[in-house]
From TrEMBL:
Native organism taxonomy: Bacteria, Pseudomonadati, Planctomycetota, Planctomycetia, Pirellulales
Gene3D superfamilies cross-referenced by the UniProt entry: HAD superfamily/HAD-like, Putative phosphatase, domain 2
Gene source species: Allorhodopirellula heiligendammensis
Name listed for the protein in its UniProt record: Phosphonoacetaldehyde hydrolase
Keywords: Hydrolase
One annotated GO biological process: DNA repair
GO cellular component, one term: cytosol
Gene Ontology molecular functions: phosphoglycolate phosphatase activity; phosphonoacetaldehyde hydrolase activity
Gene: phnX
EC identifiers of the protein: 3.11.1.1
SUPFAM superfamilies membership: HAD-like
Root EC class: hydrolase
Keyword DNA-binding among UniProt keywords: no
Amino acid sequence: MIELIVFDMAGTTVDEDNVVYKTVRQAINAAGYAFTQDQVQTAGAGKEKSQAIRDVLATDGNQHSADEVAAIFADFQQRLAQAYAVLHVRPQPGTTEVFVALRKRGIKVVLNTGYDRVTAKGLIDKIGWTIGADIDGLITASDVQNGRPAPDMIFQAMSATGVKDARAVVKVGDSEIDIEEGKNAKCGMTFGITTGAQTQTQLLNATPTAVINHLSELLPHVLG
């Protein structure tokens, strides 16, 4: 029996017009590079954002210092704060309805993300979701020692909701690293969704339980 579903945020449950990865690219390329959006999302999707920057830079085959990564990350944070100040944020289609259906059946709903807590909390506040009323928890990259694909955030979500067995947990996300995170936590099921950073073909590379195109497609899998 499913007791907890851990959902990624941007691209999975939150529609923020891909502003995070667009901003990652802007900050990296402002430092003298010319990465494409596809390169940024392939290397960085789903990751804590300083790690995403590090991994994007590494794709050029050169050495990049910690100071360079830190400078780009600081620029990214400033750019993102400016973008979010005026950004219209909304749930991905059907998300709120899915949350209601799950919670009515006693299934806990937790959001997790490669964002830091301040950024993530700002997003859910803009949407109007309340922890305890609309969702059961929020776990961010800044709350744990190890980011994705390590299972730390899922384990913390389990601890926060009193779920003991990872086989009763489902992970849903729009990137391969989301699926890898779920598998590393030994979740009972993992789902990729095509509404965000990566395509069905990319998501299938991580061998999830299934790839869905809309969050409502999750319900038959988890409600029976």
